[in-house]
Amino acid sequence: MTEAVLIQSMELVATRVGDPVPLIYERLFAANPELRELFMLDTDDAVKGNMLAQLIECLMDLAGDRHFAKGLIQTEVINHNNLGVPPEVFASFVETVVQTFREVLGSEWTEEFEAAWAALAQEFEALLETETA
Predict the structure, then answer these.
(1) What's CA 68's distance to the chain center, in Å?
(2) How do residues 60-116 score in pLDDT, each as one tens digit?
(3) Residue 77 and residue 22: Cα distance in Å, rounded?
(4) Structural domains for the chain
(5) What average pLDDT does the segment 9-22 reach?
(6) What is the rounded CA–CA span in Å between residue 71 and residue 77?
(7) Alpha carbon of residue 43 to chain centroid
(8) pLDDT the model gives residue 105
(9) For the chain, what percent of residues have pLDDT higher than 90?
(10) Residue 23 to residue 48: CA distance in whole angstroms
(11) Distance in angstroms (rounded) separating the CA atoms of residues 16 and 62
């Protein structure tokens, strides 16, 4: 059920703004200006888009069958640590996605969307904490 709610919210976002990547990263960089320099060569947003797609796949797996989310989080924490990106940025990235979707949908953002995304963000953060402890 949660997967269907998440998909519904993402489909609505896509119908409103098309590609949400620019909006999400604008918000992320506003909150974490130090991250912008890591994307200096990403002039066409391909890397940002790939990172968002990978996060969405991870979150959908976490909401569903959990085949790879834990391993992906472990790997990406290590990869990003090597770039100087601390693990807490991962949780803030998820929250940035949720905030952006909430803002894009405005009055169409339902309590069901809020509950599903909040539960997923909390679960992601808890898993992140166990992987970085």
Answers:
(1) 16
(2) 999 999 999 999 998 999 898 888 888 888 889 999 999 999 999 999 999 999 999
(3) 23
(4) 2-132 (1.10.490.10)
(5) 98
(6) 10
(7) 20
(8) 98
(9) 80
(10) 11
(11) 26
C-beta atoms surrounding 112 within 10 Å:
14
Query: Do 113 and 105 form a contact (C-beta atoms < 8 A)?
Result: yes
Residues 51/82, Cβ–Cβ less than 8 Å: no
Could you give the CA distance from residue 102 to residue 123 in angstroms, rounded to a whole number?
Answer: 19
Residue type, 117: W
State which H helix or E strand residue 98 sits in. Answer: helix 88-105
DSSP 35-85: GGGGGTT-TTSHHHHHHHHHHHHHHHHHHTT-SSHHHHHHHHHHHHHTTT-
pLDDT over threshold 70, residue 1: no
Q: Report d(CA 39, CA 100) in Å as an integer.
A: 20
Looking at residue 8, its amino acid is Q
The closest of 31, 58, 65, 49 to 124, measured between CA atoms, is: 58
